[in-house]
Amino acid sequence: MKKVAVVLSGCGVFDGAEIHESVLTLLRLEQQGASYQCMAPNIDQLHVIDHLKGEVAQGESRNVLVEAARIARGEIIDLATANPADYDALIIPGGFGAAKNLSDFAVKGPDCHVNPDLLAFAQAIHQANKPVGLICIAPAMTPLLFGEGATCTIGTDQETAAAIEAMGGQHTNCLVDDIVIDEQRKLITTPAYMLAGSIIEAASGINKLVDEVLKRT
To answer: Which residue of 92, 150, 193, 217 sits 20 to 30 Å from the alpha carbon of 207, by its own alpha carbon?
Structure first.
């Protein structure tokens, strides 16, 4: 059975992993007969957002791994302890956690850095010629993870696309129900909630992404 590493970035669209995108990814993996292991870095979140008010919750702090464990129903490991050799592929759902916790793209844009544990894990997967899927805003990390010229999509947002290209990536506009494939790098990306207006729309691209990732394992 194929085993996929799924890296989460907390729990909640505004400060962690997008819950719908994460669950849709896990569901599709199971539907296609694959297994998965959720993992997340054991670090503090950039900040905590009150998802009811849409505001920063002053004075609160949360841990990315602890919060991501909510989505994984407790079945999760520290990214720093994960062995890339144990997995056939990697998928990173979106949510602002990808741009706030897995990287600092939300704060620094093209001058951002990626969490070192994620960088080491993703590059080891890539160097072993295993496929990687990035969803929503997670593809903003593409040039830092996979090098100059790597092709990806975050949908149609011109500002984010320009930042990706400023980092050396190649951005391709993409509709919500489609994917962009960098065949050379075995990299598959889809916009999901960068464009989706419903969970069904988000699923349309995510299902294609998961299927293409598994096809290349």
So the answer is: 150
